[in-house]
Amino acid sequence: MMEAKQAAPDRLSSLPAELQDEILVRLDLRDAVRTSALSRTWRDLWKSLSVISLSFPFGTHPSVVDSVLLRYIGPRVSLFRICVDDACADRIDDWLIALSRYRVESIDMCGTLRSLGNFNLHSSIFSLGDLVSLLLKNCRIPPLPVGFPGFPALQKLVLAYLCVDFNEIHSILSMFTMLRSCHNLQNLKIESRHVSYESFEADWEFLNALWTDGMCANLQIVRMIDIISLPNETSFMKLILSKATLLHTLYVGAHPYDFDDHIIDMLKCKRASAQARVQFEVKILILMYLCKLFYCTSESGLYFIEKLDPLRKDNQHKTFAEVFYGPLRL
């Protein structure tokens, strides 16, 4: 009877632990978990990796995220990326609390809620002091904790479509605290929610008192979208113009009926940067405003609009300046 052939050595299982770890950290999460099927040695090895990247595709069931965060016992998360939809909105708090146990280097969270609007961000986000990159979209920022030191290691910050109430004093203070904590910030975008009143007026003197040396030292581009020239909006733009030494573009997207004394006053203010320019984008409805302004008859006004055809669908998102003269810079 022939002797049974000796089983071939399991070279994967005999690899040094450091090399196994190096292999796994180069895989995405799904492939790293699948290596558990290779052998008993590799089973659940991903749970104790020195660093793991957690990137969950859109539509991932919340239970999958729960399971991964519950089972991973390693020290470091290089990336946590997820699209927050209605199915997982109520799990965000628990996930951020769970992440606070690790050294998290990068967070990328984008809200895609249909029924709830922007999702609420948990205050535990401020405990992630090792963050190098932070991207937040469509969320509500909680009040900054007292004594918040900022993110000392942060190199990249992307904030898009956040809910910060610029009409409340505590929100204004929180925003300035955040700006002071982002020393390398180069591009800032603020979109108005069309609030028709201000419960607290933050004039230039008040905002100037909040400014500190070195604040927005690298700021180059500021975009103010859909403003309606409320005092707080124009005061903030005046402050940026007068303080940001590297600023080269202040982009103002406004409504045609909002070009009033506040805007004129802002344009006259002193600019800290010699290269700073203000670029206006006015919605296409300014044509009707101009017709009224110059007392055009309804017939001539309609003819004027039809002839230039600015209200065609392919022009809906173009500006008055783009359709007729090119960008308007002041």
Question: What key attributes describe this structure?
Answer:
6-stranded parallel sheet; 330 residues; 13 strands; 5-stranded mixed sheet; disordered C terminus
- The number of helices is 11
Number of domains: 3
Shape: elongated
Intertermini distance: 96 Å
Structural class: alpha/beta
β-strand number: 13
Our estimate of the beta-strand percent is 15-25%
Quick one: biggest sheet?
A: 6 strands, parallel
Average of pLDDT: 72
Order of helices and strands: HHEHEHEEEEEEHEHEHEHEHHHE
Rg from C-alpha positions? 27 Å
- Helix content percent band: 25-40%
Oligomeric state of the chains present here:
single chain
Give the uncertain stretches in residue-range form.
284-330
Q: Can you walk me through this structure?
A:
InterPro entries: F-box-like_dom_sf (IPR036047), F-box_dom (IPR001810), LRR_dom_sf (IPR032675), LRR_FXL15/At3g58940/PEG3-like (IPR055411). It holds the Pfam family LRR_At5g56370. This is F-box/FBD/LRR-repeat protein. The C terminus is likely disordered. The strands form 3 sheets. Strands 1, 2, 3, 4, 6 and 8 form a 6-stranded parallel beta sheet that branches. This protein has a 5-stranded mixed beta sheet with strand order 9-10-11-12-13. The chain has a two-stranded parallel ribbon with strand order 5-7. It is α/β, with parallel strands linked by helices and 330 residues long. It contains 11 helices and 13 strands. Helix 7 packs parallel to helix 8. It is elongated and about 75 Å long. The protein has 3 domains: 106 residues, no CATH class; 119 residues, no CATH class; 48 residues, no CATH class. The longest helix is centred in the middle third of the chain and has 13 residues. Helix 4 links the parallel strand 2 and strand 3.
